[in-house]
Amino acid sequence: MAIAADYTEKIPNNVDLHEDRRLQRALESWQPNFLSWWDSMGPALPTRDVYLRTAVNVGREGWAHFGYVAMRDYRWGIFLADRKPDRRIAFGRHKGEPVWQQVPGEYRADLQRLIVIQGDTEPASVEQQRHLGATAPSLYDLRNLFQVNVEEGRHLWAMVYLLHAYFGREGREEAELLLHRNSGSEESPRILGAFNEETPDWLSFFMFTYFTDRDGKYQLGTLKESAFDPLSRTCEFMLKEESHHMFVGTTGIDRVVQRTVQLMLEHDTDDVVAHGGIPLDIIQKYLNFHFSVSLDLFGSETSTNVANYFTAGLKGRWAEERRRDDHVLTDDSIMVDAIVDGKPGQTEVAALVGLNTDLRREYIGDCQNGVNRWNRILEEAGIDRRLRLPHVAFNRKVGAFAGIEATPDGEVLSADEWERRKGEWLPTEVDRTHVRSLMQPVYERGKVAAWLAPPRQGINGKPTDYEYVHLA
């Protein structure tokens, strides 16, 4: 059942917001708070307008409009994927029953918590990336940053709509708190640790959009399976937008590796620091950091909460309906990561409590695809070095491996040896200082900073040297 998007309203939407005046007024009263947050915590670089895509529909074709828009005037809207009238619950104890259009009372608190945690990540990444515009390596990259920012803002709107529409006063209060917490704040930090880390440079940004936004993809994928149909439809449309964020990360790292390779070949050296590049060793360290931090976002290897979410039908597995099992899992088991005899190993647990591990493994396999892609650049250049994902036990602060220190190969170290050697595997202050030294803005049309290769193609069929951003 398709509902056309209404762009005449103050809040663009395809949920017939005008038919619920109370909800409409509540969201319209939240809107100035959102804009105040955007002004104070959103992109800091002043711009006149930016060539952005704006969601205008949810269909497979023609869902977005591209054009210049002043950032503050971006039409953040509420869009749910088309409703499937005969959709049924695909897993858990309610498998086969019709999906829910309202929140069942017994699952109210759990559903609200899931929506709040997802909602909290969206403004957090905007806050983390607030100052990156000041060091953008090209207008193309600046535009991509701003596209990611406005869409994270829209994803916040998506979760706020659900909180307002389905969770009453408590939901409205939670929606306010989403604007009061701030990334890195000592008094009121964001809920998840990775979203309180700095994103101080563009290499970090590309790694974040590759690894951490990819975690977002998998979390949204589990919520897309939800028996609560409005949440499912919301996440289905968010996934469409999220793919661009990962594209920014994938191709950004492509371009960094390509430029490093060019400099290595041109100067016949692995150490490209003196030539204004980022050495493969530093790229690997940044990869190690962002991958390990993102693994922590999946939580502990075993979780009774996640087992309960699955059984209740609140949160499924990635690609749930393509799985070849009974989708109930009460009699199944899974091997999960664990400390065995003092070393990283595996142990068998009930499949239901091991669902975090199941999702993390899907994610790791997906991350490996990017590493393979970057390694092809090295291989095709005749360079025998390779990038790689570190062991799952490396640099972990959550789960089975939080209590140990391990090398990227999974070798357990004493705390003293870890302190002595961690600079071999994680960015040091010297590494970060070098990367920051390269972060000189390039705002001239068609020009690109010297530490990464130019993009291969432009946005929406435009040339790479298109004037994607008009600065104020």
Structure write-up:
With 472 residues, the protein is mostly helical. The protein is 45% helix and 8% strand. It has 11 helices and 7 strands. Strands 2-1-7 form a 3-stranded antiparallel sheet, covered by helices on one side. Strands 3-4 form a two-stranded antiparallel sheet. A two-stranded antiparallel sheet has the order 5-6. β1 and β2 form a beta hairpin. The mean pLDDT is 96. InterPro entries: Aromatic_CoA_ox/epox, Benzoyl_CoA_Oase_BoxB, Ferritin-like_SF, RNR-like. This is Benzoyl-CoA 2,3-epoxidase subunit BoxB.
Per CATH, what is the topology? Ribonucleotide Reductase, subunit A
Low-confidence stretches: none
Instruction: Write down the overall mean pLDDT.
Output: 96
Q: Please report the number of helical segments.
A: 11
Query: CATH superfamily name?
Result: Ribonucleotide Reductase, subunit A
Residue fraction in strands: 5-15%
Separation, N- and C-terminal Cα atoms: 43 Å
The number of strands is 7
This entry's quaternary arrangement is single chain
Q: Which strands sit side by side, in order, in the main sheet?
A: 2-1-7
| Tally of domains | 1
Q: What characterizes the major β-sheet?
A: 3 strands, antiparallel
The structure class reads: mainly alpha
CATH architecture: Orthogonal Bundle
Protein name: Benzoyl-CoA 2,3-epoxidase subunit BoxB
Question: Quick summary of this structure?
Answer:
The protein has 472 residues and is mainly α.
Task: Map the helices and strands.
Layout: H1 21-41, E1 47-55, E2 64-69, H2 108-128, H3 139-166, H4 168-180, H5 202-224, H6 229-267, H7 280-296, H8 304-312, E3 333-340, E4 343-350, H9 355-380, E5 405-406, E6 412-413, H10 415-421, H11 429-438, E7 469-471
Antiparallel strand pairs: 1-2, 1-7, 3-4, 5-6
Helix pairs in contact: 1-3, 1-4, 2-3, 2-4, 3-4, 3-6, 5-6, 5-7, 5-9, 6-9
